[in-house]
Amino acid sequence: MKIWKSFAILLCSLMSLAFFSGCGKNGDTTKLVMATNAEFPPFEFKAEDGSFQGIDIEIMKHICERTGRELVVEDIAFDSIIPSVTSGKAHCGVAGMTITEDRLRNVDFTTPYYEAFQVIVVPKGSAIQGADDLKGKRIGVQTGTTGDTLASDIEGADMNRFGKGAEAILALTQNKVDAVVIDNEPAKAFVAKNSDKLVILEEPLTKESYAMAVRKGNDELLSLLNTQIELMMADGTMAAIRAKYEGTAEEETAATPSAPAAE
User: Fold this and answer.
1) Of the residues 18, 111, 144, 151, which has the maximum number of CB atoms within 10 A of its CB?
2) pLDDT tens for the 263 residues of the chain, in order
3) How far is the C-alpha of 164 from the C-alpha of 38, rounded, in Å?
4) HSE-up of 251 (CA within 13 Å, CB side)?
5) Are 89 and 14 members of one domain?
């Protein structure tokens, strides 16, 4: 059985390489351009040496290594990622991006590779203890995220939108907003940097799935990415990447790497 499994994985990798020959940007079949927003630890962030690091970055590095491509990371505003994909400037958008009905109107999504939650971050001692307490409050979010969408539906919410999640967290530490709605893993990384001031409320707002976005009709690339995601899940690579950045692949409360300093 082990021999057959190894053969199946090798065969799928070779098929993916063949698929990749037709998905180069502007005829370039040697590169895979990934649009992201490197302000979202532990999924994508810039290390002190300026290199791109994180779960999404490493997943894409593995895909490129397995398919003989060079990874090109385009670091842009989060709400510019889908337009970059639909215009053909990037092959795919990989940025801890949640599958939503609105986004599905513009792009296709791969098989989900991560389950996440939207959470509420508040100052220690805050009277805000859950979603119902957000009514009429000043809420910080990153523009264009699902946190932005969810918070916008809260009755009387005073929305404060920021280009980066770190900026929303900084505003919270400066008492410019009452709470921040953001994905759970970045929340843990940011709060670890401000553990004397901030806490994450226990009850999440919602559960969601992360996937990679590709231009509608790009079935070859979609098939390639789906194949590689499935292989990485089957052979333990995905779990190993999560363990590297979260501490363990199974525990949602695992330790996270230090977040970039708030700007």
Assistant:
1) 151
2) 444 444 444 444 444 444 443 444 445 568 999 999 999 999 999 999 999 999 999 999 999 999 999 999 999 999 999 999 999 999 999 999 999 999 999 999 999 999 999 999 999 999 999 999 999 999 999 999 999 999 999 999 999 999 999 999 999 999 999 999 999 999 999 999 999 999 999 999 999 999 999 999 999 999 999 999 999 999 999 999 999 988 533 333 333 333 333 32
3) 9
4) 11
5) yes
Same domain, 102 and 121: no
Q: Domain range holding 161?
A: 117-207
- 187 in a structural domain: yes
φ and ψ at 238, to 5 degrees? Answer: -65, -45
Beta-carbon contacts of 60 under 8 Å, excluding residues fewer than 6 positions away, are 32, 34, 71, 73, 94
